[in-house]
Every structure is written in C-alpha cells, then in structure tokens.
Specification:
The protein has about 180 residues and is α/β, with parallel strands linked by helices. It is built from 3 helices and 10 strands; from the N terminus they run E-H-E-H-E-E-E-E-H-E-E-E-E. The chain is globular. It starts with a strand and ends in a 5-residue tail after the last strand. Bound molecules: inosinic acid and magnesium ion (MG).
Length: about 180
C-alpha cells in the first residue's frame, strides 16, 4: 500500500488536530441549539468514504447522538471523476424533527451533497448541516453550502483516511496522492 503513494498531502497528526477542532466547533454549535436539541441529534455519514472520518469525529462530540448511514456511489470502480450520484440505500426513516449533520469525506463536484441534502430536506428535519473533511475549491458545479470543512486541497485525486481508488487505500492513515503506476 505505502509504496503506491507518491506524496502525502496531510499527515495523520494534522488530521487528528483538525478533527479535534471541527469537533469542538460542531459541539459548540449543537450546544447553542439549546437543551431540547440535545436529544435529537443525528449524524448521517455518507458511506463508504466517510467511515474513518466519522468514527474519529463522533468521539470529539461529547453529546448524545444517533447515527444513520446513507450509501452513495459516485465513482464506480476505477473512475476518477463523478459519474453521477446513485443512492445505494433508502434514506433513514426518522429524520423529521431531528438536528441532522451529513458527513462526507470530500466535496468535489458537489453533486453528492446537493442530491442528498435536497432529499433529506424533504423529510422535514429541525436543522440540516453538512460537514466534509476535504474540499477541492473551485470544482463545485452546483452551489452547495458546506457548514464545516476540514481542509481545502488542490485538485488532485487523493486516497486514504476513508477515500478510495477502486475500493482500495481507505485504511491508509494519511491523505495522499497515488503514483501513476498504481492507477
Ligand atoms: P462529488 O459528488 O463530486 O462532490 O464527489 C464526492 C464524492 O466523490 C466523495 O464522496 C468521494 O467518494 C468521491 N471523491 C471525490 N474526489 C475524490 C478523490 O480525490 N479521491 C477519492 N474519492 C473522491
Ligand atoms: Mg463518497
């Protein structure tokens, strides 16, 4: 695995530090919603890319919360650009009246979060926020609002910390760029 990585963009230490900061901000914002809200927080990780990020992030949130996953596929197989968004599972049922935070690994074209937030909003949540670990600035084709962003990165295809190429490298602990020979 390691030998397929050309360059590390973000080290595990920087990720850890940033996830801690994001957690503190999100926790403060949830706190500001008042005591009532505390019973109704649901985190919605977009599978599978958000799996590592969300597992670290939720442990930085010292509040009661539920987790409801959503499965989405936009980069089937070896493709490196979005082929449109396909929902791989039904939306969770109990979203009405909840304070929701949709968590994804990366905002690229913005289609994934755009489609998801539009569908989720129809369910009548009390509030809806979005959080991504990474964002490629200037790439978004649609105007989608993201409330919490870990890092802005250059427009390169990255793997690690949940992000994959052809299903691989999700367990690589840093964010890195693949060698040409691995693609
Ligand atoms: P969007 O719909 O174009 O914003 O793309 C978001 C989804 O595409 C993310 O959930 C990722 O799964 C995937 N993606 C986008 N850029 C990358 C990348 O550089 N590496 C791996 N996956 C990516
Ligand atoms: Mg994804």
């Amino acid at each position: 695995m390691e030998r397929d990585i050309a360059r590390v963009l973000i080290t595990p230490e920087r990720i850890r530090e940033r996830v801690r900061e994001l957690g503190a901000r999100i926790a403060a914002d949830l706190d500001a919603l008042g005591e009532d809200a505390a019973e109704h927080v649901t985190i919605i990780p977009v599978m599978t890319g958000a799996i590592v990020f969300v597992s670290d992030l939720i442990r930085e949130l010292p509040v009661k919360l539920r987790i409801e996953i959503i499965g989405v596929s936009s980069y089937p197989g070896k493709s490196m650009e979005s082929k449109g968004v396909a929902l791989k599972s039904e939306l969770p049922r109990e979203l009405a009246g909840r304070h929701l935070i949709v968590i994804d690994d990366i905002l690229d074209s913005g289609q994934t979060l755009d489609v998801l937030t539009t569908l989720i909003r129809e369910r009548g949540p009390a509030s809806l926020r979005t959080c991504v670990l990474l964002r490629k600035p200037g790439k978004a084709k649609v105007d989608v609002r993201v409330d919490y962003v870990g890092f802005d990165i250059p427009d390169e295809f990255v793997v690690g910390y949940g992000l994959d190429y052809d299903g691989l490298y999700r367990n690589y602990p840093a964010i890195g760029v693949l060698k040409e020979s691995a693609i």
